[in-house]
Specification:
Layout (H helix, E strand, L loop, with lengths): L42 H28 L6
Length: about 80
């Protein structure tokens, strides 16, 4: 079964999904595709923006990962 619906993505980038009861429980695949406006960014611009965002947050994310790992102990 396939359901397709065009939605507006709000500024907070949060969307709530209500699945119809006719849809069987279990695993499903969600696919997101952008409907680009004529003045929208190109794929290369979006990729460059994503890389810059990752690089800007890399140090903080690495520190968070190290903090989590510091609470774990290995029992051999």
């Amino acid at each position: 079964m396939t359901i397709e619906q065009t939605v507006e993505i709000p500024d907070n980038h949060r969307i709530t999904l209500d699945i119809p009861p006719e849809f069987p429980p279990g695993r499903a695949i969600l696919t997101f595709a952008s409907v680009l406006a004529p003045d929208a960014v190109t794929a290369a611009e979006a990729e460059a923006r994503d890389i810059e965002l990752i690089n800007r947050n890399a140090e903080r994310l690495n520190q968070e990962a190290l903090d989590v790992l510091s609470f774990q102990t290995l029992e051999i």
